[in-house]
């Protein structure tokens, strides 16, 4: 079963994170859509998420996860030692999300916003985008 990662399509850091996931998701477990896309807006509505969400969102097994919960759930499906980060789920989410929120608040300042161009993925990667 595959899962869907929703990301901020205007954020360079978020785009780099998607590329990071793709490189380490050798089984093709994840599919991707930007929060701003038709698919993203449909899933936001379907899962009764606030329209102003700007966090990474993971839809997995019929549930929506956000912020550090989404990132850590993603990590457990990645190749290599990245799976070990899932152990951080034992840390209470308010504590985990302090770091997540700090990075999220500063991501445009540190990494910038996307211009009108984006990467052109290979056909096998392109089919993973919804």
Task: Tell me what the structure shows.
The chain is α+β, with helices and mostly antiparallel strands and 130 residues long. The protein has one domain. It has helices spanning 12-24, 38-46, 67-75, 93-111, 123-126, and strands at residues 3-7, 30-34, 57-60, 63-66. It has a four-stranded mixed β-sheet with strand order 2-1-3-4, with helices on both faces. A hairpin with a 2-residue loop joins strand 3 (57-60) and strand 4 (63-66). The longest helix has 19 residues, at 93-111. The radius of gyration is 14 Å and the shape is globular. The two termini are 15 Å apart. The model has no long low-confidence stretch (mean pLDDT 89).
Short recap of the structure:
This protein has 130 residues and is an alpha+beta fold.
Annotation, overall tally of beta strands: 4
Structural class: alpha+beta
Helix-strand pattern, N to C? EHEHEEHHH
**How many whole angstroms does the radius of gyration measure?**
14 Å
**Mean pLDDT level:** 89
Tertiary shape: globular
Total helical segments: 5
